[in-house]
From TrEMBL:
<dbReference type="Pfam" id="PF03167">
    <property type="entry name" value="UDG"/>
</dbReference>
<keyword id="KW-0378">Hydrolase</keyword>
<dbReference type="InterPro" id="IPR051536">
    <property type="entry name" value="UDG_Type-4/5"/>
</dbReference>
<keyword id="KW-0227">DNA damage</keyword>
<keyword id="KW-0408">Iron</keyword>
<dbReference type="GO" id="GO:0004844">
    <property type="term" value="F:uracil DNA N-glycosylase activity"/>
</dbReference>
<keyword id="KW-0479">Metal-binding</keyword>
<dbReference type="InterPro" id="IPR036895">
    <property type="entry name" value="Uracil-DNA_glycosylase-like_sf"/>
</dbReference>
<keyword id="KW-0411">Iron-sulfur</keyword>
<dbReference type="InterPro" id="IPR005122">
    <property type="entry name" value="Uracil-DNA_glycosylase-like"/>
</dbReference>
<protein>
    <recommendedName>
        <fullName>Type-5 uracil-DNA glycosylase</fullName>
    </recommendedName>
</protein>
<dbReference type="GO" id="GO:0051539">
    <property type="term" value="F:4 iron, 4 sulfur cluster binding"/>
</dbReference>
<comment type="similarity">
    <text>Belongs to the uracil-DNA glycosylase (UDG) superfamily. Type 5 (UDGb) family.</text>
</comment>
<dbReference type="GO" id="GO:0006284">
    <property type="term" value="P:base-excision repair"/>
</dbReference>
<dbReference type="GO" id="GO:0046872">
    <property type="term" value="F:metal ion binding"/>
</dbReference>
<keyword id="KW-0004">4Fe-4S</keyword>
<keyword id="KW-0234">DNA repair</keyword>
Length: 253
């Protein structure tokens, strides 16, 4: 398969804990195009960050290992999470997301600038279907499929407490449905369509990977990209409404 190799630091299924999974994913080199791009960006840098050392590796999820709510984006931004090493950290998309999370009581502060800045998430974890920054923010289908086992393992490990998922954008929504179906939840057929404010409920199958898994409510929101937030397609109030609904579904409010 073009652009994809079999090189991985560790198979996702071998990770027994969220901490172990987070450590393992940072060493993944499975997708040649993504490895080359993330490392090129880390070398060349943006002028505004020329004095900073870029992360330049796959980005793990961020948030507690017993999270009841998971937010799923698309992929790290080249000069955001690919620079800082934390999801939605150090870019304007993250500014919008964390401000909303703080307003609805899911984050300790409204800004996310760098790991160690004091930010904590409450019952919430942020992750992505693709863990490396892709050129033009567009991973290929092969790269999405190659990265999928990481998200599968993450949701399996979170299953005992997982009660709600917010998918940011159509890519995140489709990925969530694929992963839930692959990891033991009964996704409705035909699969629910994405839209801002979309809502679906999935129940665990009898053969679920974790016997204590429960029903999961999935919520859709337009992505917090600058294209959406600058044009008003996604407003702070719209995002807060979705996050509030998801927080209630996860018993976090």
């Amino acid at each position: 398969m073009a652009g994809v190799s079999d090189r991985r630091a560790q198979e996702p299924a071998e990770a027994a804990t969220i901490a172990g999974l987070d450590e393992a994913v940072t060493g993944c080199r499975a997708c040649d195009r993504l490895v080359a791009w993330r490392e090129q960006v880390a070398r060349d840098k943006r002028a505004a960050f020329a004095d900073q050392e870029y992360w330049g590796r796959p980005v793990p999820g961020f948030g507690p290992a017993d999270a009841a709510l998971v937010i799923v984006g698309l992929a790290p931004a080249a000069h955001g999470a690919n620079r800082t090493g934390r999801m939605f950290t150090g870019d304007r998309s993250g500014d919008v997301l964390y401000a909303a999370l703080h307003e609805v009581g899911l984050a300790s502060q409204a800004r996310s600038t760098y790991p160690g800045d004091g930010l904590a998430l409450y019952g919430t974890r942020i992750t992505a279907p693709v863990r490396c920054a892709p050129p033009d923010n567009k991973p290929t289908p092969a790269e999405r499929d190659t990265c999928q086992p990481w998200l599968e393992r993450e949701l399996t490990l979170l299953a005992p407490n997982l009660r709600a998922v917010v998918a940011l954008g159509g890519f995140g929504w489709q990925s969530v449905m694929r992963v839930l179906a692959a990891t033991g939840w009964q996704v409705p057929k035909p699969r629910p369509r994405f839209g801002h404010g979309a809502h679906a409920v999935v129940a665990p199958r009898d053969d679920h990977a974790h016997p204590r898994a429960g029903e999961v409510q999935v919520f859709g929101s337009f992505h917090v990209s600058q294209q959406n937030t600058f044009t008003g397609r996604l407003t702070p109030a719209m995002l807060r409404d979705v996050l509030s609904d998801a927080a209630r579904a996860a018993n976090l409010r």
